[in-house]
Amino acid sequence: MPIRVLSEQVASQIAAGEVVERPASVVKELVENSIDAGASNLRVETRGGGKEFIRVTDDGCGVPAAEAEMAFQRHSTSKLSTADDLSHITTLGFRGEALASIASVSRVTFVTRAADEPMGTLLRLEGGKVITQQENGRPPGTAVTVENLFFNVPARRKFLRADRTERGHIDGWLTRYAMAYPELGFTLSHDGKAVFQSLGNGKLRDVLVAVYGLEVGAALLEILPGEPEASIRVSGFVSPPSLHRANRSYITLFVNGRWVQDARLTYAAFQAYHTLLPGGRYPLAVVMVQMPPEEVDVNVHPAKAEVRFSDGDAVFRAVQRAVRHTLMERSPVPLAARPPISWPSAAPTTSRREERIERLTGLRSQPAGEQLRFEPRPAEATEPGESVLATSADRLPPLRVVGQLGVTYIVAEGPQGMYLIDQHAAHERVLFEKLLAERERAAVASQSLLEPQPVELSPEATSVLEEYLESLNGLGFQAEPFGGATLLVRAIPALVAGEHPREVLEDIAAALMTGDAPLSTRVEESIARSVCKQAAIKAGQVMAREEMEELIRELERCASPRTCPHGRPTMIHLSVEQLAREFGRG
Ligand code: ADP
Ligand code: MG
To answer: Which CATH class for the 220-330 domain?
Structure first.
């Protein structure tokens, strides 16, 4: 072929390929623009894994009507003007490429209003060409809608993966920004279902709870501050040595608010755990590095995911020292078994009569030391801006079992009144904390099947289980693809040893596929919830007194005894005061 200059259309699609690889890259670029625009609240909605529809709405500064169209021209940016500016970039964007690139490979609707203008602008583009521009009334801020990504680049569209996979990438980016900017409120929904929300209260730990779940979020250690005058400052959270993961993808690094992939810094965080972790295991860490912008070059990578430091060794040392110091100072001493509770009329604690009782035992990982708190706390009682974290105040006081009610509830009394406990929900909670604790020690009890069993499921269920095989296998399963819609199952968690493997797997797949599709980081919790739901004592099952006592004791040891893993209450508490009031004694 003779040499030719490419048409503008082809050239812009090639350039777009650098920036827009998949739906998650669109989300990343739009979210960065909203953050740069000074937004406080960002809403991200997707449909069809972002392939059909992505909308990012913010309450930032907006774009003046006169400049709206310019925002879509290549190399148009409001964030830098001279080459000199490149040496101290403080915004996430600066190349002026993203909107032009996104628009060239999709259908974009851009609705924006600058705070100081009375009217907004609506701009519709297709394949990069403006097809409509009109006035629009909307509150100050911007909403960018991107539909039919790669509609005009079939080669690219072919490489997009299943909706679920694309959603997982979107989750990854959004949760990283939520961690980097705890003071901003983020919400994410897929196909009309809310999957993630950060409160925007400025507390990183609350964001980590939203991303990784309560159990992990509560266990993380806050990195201790270093010298206040140091030019490189390190903050964030790291896992205690007892909590680890099978790969290093749970080490998340930010430099000046920008997520970076940096093998050396990842290694620095990992190395700080030297001798503290079992072989082949990695910590979970969220490490924020703040440093003078002129000492880091962010303009070395198309997606800006890699950076270059003028003094890489200094950054390495700062991260390693901060993490190590935190582990030495903050890491809890190995946790001992909790001393037995002495309640005056408690029955003997040693009965092991029935197999079911054994299922209730084994949670020994939490220290005692509760402060008592007696009002029931509904799961969703968090006010915006309030911490969602469970504290020792959530723990239960020692309770005495009175009896079973309606073959469904356990009646118990404590120093502050009467407790009506849902036996199924309480048992789910106990098993759930126990299973996650075992998971963290990579020691989940597993039951081998007599013979490996081929289990045929729906193609959808099989594909979701195959995608999360690593998580399944970390939770006591041993399963592998067996061709078609069949999995070969060699072992299942000991907790559900009595159940049929297909029913157990079907339930897990259903939970992973439907409604509250979990964030990819919380897949393990979702699997654990399904397993525990199936293993827990059902309503309608008669419980012996010893079983009830054992269950209550295990519940007292739980970090979050008042709700089941699905967030429903495990108990109703009637305080001494309430009882007195009801009986006209107070
Ligand atoms: P860059 O972010 O590198 O400047 P983009 O193509 O992403 O380039 O955006 C171009 C310009 O459009 C930005 O510089 C900014 O002025 C404007 N812009 C884009 N998104 C928003 C938004 N959500 N709010 C306000 N301005 C925006
Ligand atoms: Mg940008």
So the answer is: alpha beta
Helix axes 523-535, 501-513, angle to 10 degrees: 140
Cβ(283) – ligand 1 distance below 6 Å? no
Residue ranges, comma separated, of all CATH 3.30.230.10 domains in the chain are: 220-330
Assess whether pLDDT exceeds 60 at residue 133.
yes
Rounded Cα–Cα distance for residues 357 and 366 (Å): 20
Which of 1-5, 37-41, 578-582 has maximum average pLDDT?
37-41
Specify whether the CB–CB gap between 26 and 20 falls below 8 A.
yes
pLDDT digits (tens, 9 = 90+) for 353-385: 334 444 443 332 335 333 223 233 333 333 433
- Judge whether 72 and 216 are in contact, CB under 8 Å: no
94 lines ligand 1 (CB under 6 A): yes
* CATH code 3.30.1540.20 region(s) in the chain: 358-375+394-573
CATH C-level class of 358-375+394-573: alpha beta
What is the 205 CA–ligand 2 centroid distance (Å)? 28
The preferred substitution site among 30, 99, 144 for testing ligand 1, maximizing ligand atoms within 8 Å of CB, is 99
Residue whose CB lies within 8 A of the most ligand 1 atoms, among 31, 77, 81, 94, for a mutation test: 77
Q: Which two tokens stand for residue 215?
A: 């159990």
Give me the amino acid identity at 265: L
Report the DSSP pairing between strands 417-422 and 478-481: unpaired
Q: Ligand 1, residue 29: give the atom nearest the CA.
A: 7
Q: How many CB atoms lie within 10 A of CB 275?
A: 5
Domain 8-202 sits in CATH at 3.30.565.10
CA distance 221 to 239: 6
Nearest to 71, CA basis, from 50, 45, 102: 102
Of the chain, the end-to-end C-alpha distance in Å amounts to 96
Any ligand 1 atom below 6 A from CB of 31 = no
Query: Which three-class secondary structure state does DSSP give residue 78?
Result: coil
Q: Give yes or no for residue 58 CB within 6 A of ligand 1.
A: yes
**Which residues of the chain are in CATH 3.30.565.10 domains?**
8-202
**Position 316 pLDDT exceeds 80:** yes
**Using an 8 Å Cβ cutoff, are 108 and 76 in contact?**
no
User: Looking at ligand 1, which residue's alpha carbon is closest to its atom 12?
Assistant: 71
How much of the chain, in percent, has pLDDT values that exceed 90?
59
Give the whole-angstrom CA distance, residue 246 versus residue 462. Answer: 23
Q: Is 103 in the pocket of ligand 1 (CB under 6 A)?
A: no
pTM of the model: 0.75
At 311, give phi and psi (nearest 5°): -135, 80
